[in-house]
Amino acid sequence: AGATGRVVLVGGGPGDPGLITVAGRQWLSRADVVVTDRLGPTSLLSELSPDVEIIVVGKTAGNHPIPQDSINRILVEHAQAGRTVVRLKGGDPFVLGRGGEEAEALARAGVPYAVIPGITSAIAAPAYAGIPVTHRGITTSLVIASAHAGAGQALDAARTAPHDAALVML
After folding, report:
1. For the ranges 53-67, 69-83, 113-127, which has the lowest average pLDDT?
2. Distance between alpha carbon 60 and the CA centroid of its chain, in Å?
3. pTM for the whole thing?
4. How many of the other CB atoms lie within 10 Å of CB of 79?
5. 3 state SS of 53
6. Nearest Cα residue to 6 out of 117, 102, 118, 93
7. CA atoms of 13 and 43, how far apart (whole Å)
């Protein structure tokens, strides 16, 4: 058995390749393997060495050609083969990104991993539109709700949010 590599879950930001963090760019430059989806800053992949293996696992609504269990297995297998694997994700790995599921699979397999946070669209989209998600005297808290499972849970979050909260529905 070879030395175990590692996996770094990198949040690529909200789509603009200039918004990936410095740490995220550094890990991309160190990768042996990049496992990416369609929401990450994929234009950055052209800057990588031709020796870097790129595995595209992109999903679209209703089309999941590579199920999450298979993605988890890809991450584990490459790390167990001694490679440095970057899992390049859109936004932040732990905001609607299944990064938590990937981290759990890595921990169960005993694979070392790290998380490089990314800028989530829940913050970036309002900022680009000139809307602060907190503002002294107006909004003192932020509620982010997902509507992926239907509007019910998102509407419940809106109903139970503090009156001075900014609401971001994803």
Report:
1. 53-67
2. 15
3. 0.89
4. 24
5. strand
6. 102
7. 13
